[in-house]
Structures are given as structure tokens and as C-alpha cells.
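Complex record, two chains
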Amino acid sequence: MEHHAEVLTGGKWHQQIPSWRDFAAMLLILGIVILLGIGARQMVAPFVPAHPPEISLSPSQLPLYTLRTVIRMLAALVASLVFTFTYATLAAKSRRAEMVLIPILDVLQSVPILGYLSFTVLFFVSLFPGNVLGAELATIFAIFTSQAWNMAFSFYQSLRTVPHDLDEASRSFRDSAWQRFWRLEVPFAMPGLIWNMMMSMSGGWFFVVAAEAISVGDFKIALPGVGSYVARAIEQRDLGAIGWAIAAMTIAIVIYDQLLFRPMVAWADKFRFEQTAAQTVPKSWVLELFRRSRLMKGLSEPVGMTLYRAARFPLVLPGRLPRWSPPRRAVDVIWYALLLAGIAYVSWMILQYARSALSWDDVRTAASDGILTLARVVVLIAIASIVWVPIGVAVGLRPKLTEIIQPIAQFLAAFPANLLFPLAVYLIIRFHLSTEIWLSPLMILGAQWYILFNVIAGATAFPSDFREAAASFRVRPWHWWRYVMLPGIFPYYVTGALTAAGGAWNASIVSEAVRWGSTKLSASGLGAYIAQMTEAGDYPRIALGIAVMSMLVIIMNRLLWRPLYRFAELRTRLD
Amino acid sequence: MEKQKEPAIVEFHKVCKAYVKPSGEPLPVLKDIDIYLTEGEILGVLGRSGCGKSTLLRITGGLIEPTSGQVLYRGVPLVSPAEGIAMVFQTFALYPWLTVLGNVELGLDALGLPVDEARQRANTAIDLIGLDGFQSAYPRELSGGMRQRVGFARAIVSRPTLLLMDEPFSALDVLTAETLRTDFLDLWTTHQLPTKAVLMVTHNIEEAVLMCDRILVLGSNPGHIAAEVPVSLPQPRNRLDAAFHAIVDEIYSILTSRMTEAIATQSQVHSGLMQILSPISISRIAGFVETLSAPPYEGHAELSKIARPLALEVNDLFPIAAALHILEFAELKGGSIKLTAAGRVFVESGTEERKQLFREHLVRFVPLAAHIRQVLEERASHEAPRERFEFELQDHLNQMEAATTLSAVIDWGRYAELFTYDDRRQTFGLDHFFQK
């Protein structure tokens, strides 16, 4: 073997061989492109509602099913992003639009996800008659409704809190609205947005089962995917198949976490607003691979440059529109009048519709069921807090342990707990337990982890000098909890408990009425009410149940969580 | 107005700015400002915080529209940020997700230059400002001084005619600020900058005298031009120069005389409820009094002399001096401060006597404190909501002044054990231990 001088001196020639990194990155990209292609091609196949494609329980079909489910979820995520960028931007930029859009978003967020499904599926299917695309869209829309709202809220909050000096700098450099959006507002909102995208993706899994195997009244459809696979397995009482589905989902979650979210989080670290260097920088091997691979760098540079040019493009309307600003007051008056008229008209419509279809008895049933479910949510959050707060604190104060436990807690929060429902049904039947009590824990099964990982985060962030002070004054254990630790983690706990409560409400629909093959178990509650009405295709009562649930969620947010947030904010600040 | 030889870069004609209070009343911030900024000039605007100097700068930058009056930039009315005006920010205002190069290129965004040309111009600016080698660094990796250099590079990269500087050195430590000032003046005096004129806002008197050709001293409530001080010393200027000192002292006495006048009128009208106080902690008051009574001052010092060893800037020094003057522990006169007899007693007393003395002075010279105490004594419950006094104050002061005044009185009243205050309930009260 000859030694070239260039090689020894590390000259240019050496630089040009593609390294293993190039091959790895290449493979990764090609693999993803091919997989997405396979999945997408089947989504536009012709489809005859009378003979839906049979879902096979063979594990060999699972990879393809999982792929299709993940593609649906990613499509919904893209839709959520588009929604976020438009809706939240409009709400943040226009005072008048804000007045309408933000309350609407508040309500949308509180509507249980299955509620959207029953109302929209027929619309989407009728859009593309004879093609599976309509049903696909309905499913994607259902997943979208589980993802979009918190992203939009986060983006809106970020837009509202863009630091004043950066905003002034942007204005004084005469950036156009387009430049400002991409150069200042989106980057500033990025960390919060990515975090919420991850939360959304997790939330989506929970409802995939319901969203892929849609059945509203007589209309039944099962799209090939993990969700349908699980639904079928439940129908067939096939515990083994459920096990396979759990394995497939776990693998899928790990894969997209590694390939998509880790790189995004590591990349987005530069958008953190704090001017100080962080102690722990998020890392991702995929991002490293792409950054280090010269081939990838060469390929991605033109793309990056184009995006950069697009963001810098001073997009302004040609020729300034003559500035005609009518008196603010007058516009406000007209705007309020329009709003009032709209609200009055819609209320009247609803009243008319409700009067013809519903009686006071229905309202009473729904309301009392609602109170039952509310009681369950409150008790479960309390129990989960008593269990997880001490454990979370114990873990959070031990950095080594935190490193191990925290990702597990986050994974468990992402894991669709409804896969474990069959086990619960089996146990309840086997031991003749009361459904009213023993179905309840299913509601909190997936949601409790939010309390755990938020408390862990709080305990980790607890200033060590506070701890040292408490230790050096030998504060007694009871006082240590009461005056040192609990106030310290309080804001984090509130965040966790709020998210958990939201999750529990949503889960009530699937967990108050569960089935295993032909065995159906149900507890009385609003969730079961909505589930039964959906099965019966009774639209007025579905709407009633959803309205009651939204109202309860909104009331709980207003009367409990917001005051708690404000209290936490006030009491835990030093200045 | 007489015609000057130099063409004007910026002209202000009777510019006023008023914000609208939540109650709908106008809150005047600037009143009848006339400015004529010519080519080749560094104009300083000097004043205490809250006198509207930042608003003035932002009006010049086109970021805020004046309520009335006219602003001309090179003879054309200015309505929005104009090409040829660039700004350096007190807080740097760097985008943390962009590298140094990216941040500097941001200054060129609006020009829509080709990418290559933008990069080249950015590199030239980076070079000039002494940032070469840091192109790929992110702001969080840089020290404060280097960050502000990026701020300067970003401002000059578009080759602006007018450079606006909003207290550009005040967020930096003393040494770094000095280096940056000198470097900037070097570039300016050797005409390496494309800029034709500079408008700088500052609260640092020495900095203004060091850098500016002309200084406008801004008075407050509402902001107006109180005096114009030309500085004709040649660059580079020497802080130890007698002429330099004379100008610094002159500005100090302009500012103090305006302050004592204001204090005198405020405490005389509207039963003293027009008095504006700044929340100065007791330890600062005590520390200042102790320093003043000790050698080398022996109870009497020029403000410009005592500011430096205590590392106090005008923003810190004047409120302390004002508080002492109001409480009559010291007297301000013509740029110097002198301990009163009560002030000397205060220094020599122990904790309890100090409280006693402070309490007596608080009741005598701060009408609001006496008023609160009296209301509390008259009421059967010995309690009164904060709102009550807030509303009374807002008859004479704007919302922010009322808030700071009230927080100063709360702090002093608590120290003097004149009354108690419960922040959670927003209520004043009398502790029965205090009642005599």
C-alpha cells in the first residue's frame, strides 16, 4: 500500500472519501423515504364500504400497520403545525380576532377527542366517495384534534411574550412581517412548540385505537393500522395479539423518538432564550451524524440556503396601501355588534335543535353522570398525587436515579394505556369486582405519569442551597415537607396535575365503558354516557354529553387550576 | 429659528408625547422638545430614568409616533423606521439563535441584498468593530462587552447616516464600558464609520461629557429640555482635566438644583401628596450617610466626587440624595450634599435610636406617611386598604409614580415601625405593640 503525502498530512484528498457517516446517513434517508412511500400509496386505494379490508391478527402484518399509523400521526402533526402557524398568529396579531379565537380554542381543547370523530367522519367520507382517502382523512382529523390545540396555545403564548427589545430591534431594522415571523417569532417559539409537539404525539397514540376503528351507529370502518389491529384483537379476545401490538408500538415510539424528536430537540437547543450556557445540552446521534457527514452537509446546504433566502425575502405588498384608519371606537362597536349577533343566532339555533331532540330528563342524566365522572377525576388525581409526589421528590433529588427514571416516566406517559384495559376487564370478571369502582383506575392509568415527571422535574430544579439550608438547620421531616419541599415543587406539581386531569377526562370515554370480546363492562358516568350514545349513533345526546363535559372541564380550569397557577406564581417568586 | 450652516440630519419641532392612562386621561411624557442634530455631531441626551429620554430616542428611530409636533429626518417627515437610521440597544437585543454573523446580517435584511454581498458587508463590519474570529459564535458564548460589539456591528453594517444609542454601555462593567467607549470614539474621530451623526441617550454624566459634542439635559414630569451644555473639549478627552471637571460639576448642579426645586414645590402643594418618592432601602440610606460623615468628606461632599468611589451612577445617586434631602438628614445645594445636624445624630446612634429619629423625620417631612398613620389611628379597626391611598395619590401623580411612592413609604414605614403592611391582603394596619 502506497502512502500518499496527502494522506499523511491530512490533505485534501483525504477529505474527499465518503466516510461511514455518509453511508449511514444515506441509508437512513433512503429507508425513511421508501417506507413513507409504501405507506402513502395504500392510503389512496379505492374502497368499498360494504367490504372493508379485513384486519389480520398475524404479527407479520404488524410492521406495515404500525407504519401506516405513524404516517397518519405525522400527517396530523403537519396539519397541526399549519393550523398553529395560522390560527395562533392571527389570534396574537389581531386584538379583535383574539377576542373570538382564544375562547374558541379554550373550548376546542376541552372537547373530548372522540366527540369530534362522531361528527366529522361522515363529512370526510362523503368528500371522497368510493375511495379510502375520505376515511383516512377522518382518522387523520381525529388525531389532529388530539394534537393541535396545545401547540396553538403554546405558539400564541410565545408570540405574546416575544421580548420587547428583540421586537424593537426587528422593527428598527425594518423587517417585513414575513421576515419577522420567520426570523424572530418562530425561532423564539420553537422550544415550547417542539415540546408541545412531543406531548401531542404522545396524546395521539391514546386515541389511535378509537380513531382507526371508527364506529358511529351503523357506520363502521377499520383502516389498516395498529389501532384497528388492537380493536380486532379485543373483539377476538386474543391476548397474544395485544402483546404483539404493545411491542410494535413500543418499537415505533422509540424509533420516531430517536429519528425525529431527539434531533429536533438537540437542534432547537440554540433557540433557548436564556443568554447563559446550559449545564446539560441535549444530544442526538442522528443530528451528530448529519452534522458530521460531509455528504449530507453538501446535500443539505442548498436546502438550508433556499430556506434562509426565503426567510430573508423582504415580502411586502407592492406599493403601500393607502393607510386608511377609521376611528377605533367605531370599528370596535361594529365588531362587538357582529359578535353579539353571531352568538345570539347560534344560541337560538342550538336551542331550537335541542328543544326538538332533547328533554330535561336528558340534561339531568347527563349532568348527574357528569358529577360522577368529576368525582372520579378528583379522587383519582388526589390518590395519584399522594402516591407520586413523594416518589417524584425522592427520585428528583437523586440525579443518578433521575437520569434513569425520567425517560421511563415520559415514555409511560406516551404509552397508550388503553392497551392494558383488557387485562383490567379480565381481572374484574375473574374476581367479581364492582365496575363502578374498579373501572375508575383506568382513567388515570396513562395520565398519572404527568404528575410523576413534572414533580421529578421540580425536585431536580429545586435550588440546592435551599436544601442545604434546610439540612443545616435540621428542619424536622414534617416541616421539611410542609415548608421546604412542597412549596418548592408546587408550580411543577400544578402543571402535572392539570395535564393529568385533562387526560383523565379524555380517557373517561374509553375507560368507563370497556369490552373484551363480547363482554361489556361499564360504570355509570359521563364517559360511558358518551360512549353508549356514540355506539347508538344518537347525535343530539352525543352533543349533549360533550357539551356537559366541556363545561365541566372549563369550569374546573377556571375555578381550580388558574387560581392555583396564579397562587404558585405569586408565592414562589422572590422578587 | 436661525439658519445653521450644517444641514440638519434630524429636527424636532415642538414634539410632545403622551400615553393614555387606563382611566383614559393623557399621561404626558415629553413636552415641547426641539432638537436640531447636525452632521458630524454626537448629541447626548442626559437625564434620570423615567424622564422620557428612551421615548425620545425611539421617536427618532421611528418606533414610536409623537402625539404632536413634527420630526424631520433629512428634511422629510419621519413616520416609521427609516432607511439610514440604526439603533444600538441597552440590552444588546441580540437574537440568541443566530450566530454573530447571523445577527450582523440581520441588520441588512430589509435591504434585500444578494446573500454573498450581505455576507461580505457583514464581515467587513465585524472586522471593523473588532469581532473577527467570532463569526460562528452564538451570543450566549460571548461576554457582555463582546455582545455589545455585535450590537454595534449590526447597527453600522447597513451604513446608517444616523446612529441611535440607547444607553449602550450601561449594562457593562466599568472596565469593559471604558474600552468600548474608547474604541468607538477612535473609529468616530478617524472617520472610519459611515455614520454622519450620533444621538446617544445616557444617565451617566461623565460618559456624556467624555463622548458628546453637545448635551441636552432632560428634566422630568413631563420630560423637557432643561438645559443645553456644549462640550468643546478636543478628543480624546481626559477625565482628570480641570475643564472636564468643570463641565461635569456644572451638569451636576443643573440636575440638583432642578431636583431641590421640584422637592420644594411638591411638598408644599396639595397637602404634600404630590411628593414623589423612590423606594430607597434603609441600608443604602444609612450606608450613604455613614460614608458622607466619615473622612475625607466629614459631612460635606460634591456629588461628582462622592459618586465615583461608591461606584454610583446618577440613577442610583440622585434618588438616595433626594431621599436624604426630603427627610432632612442632608441638604442638597449647587451640586454638593451636606449632612444636617439630624444626619450627624443618625450616624452616631444605635439601632433603636436610629429608628426613633427616622420615625420622627418620616412623620414630619413625608406627609403621606403621617397621613396613613393618622387614618389608621382614627379607624376603629386600625386597618386601611392600600387602594384608599393609591386613589388619593393618583389625583396628583400618575400610576407608576403613585406605585413607587407608595412602595417607598411602605418600606420606610415598616422600618420606622409606624405601621404594618400585609401584601397578601393589600392592607395597612397598626401593630398593637407599636401603639403607644
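Note: Chain B has 15 helices and 16 strands.
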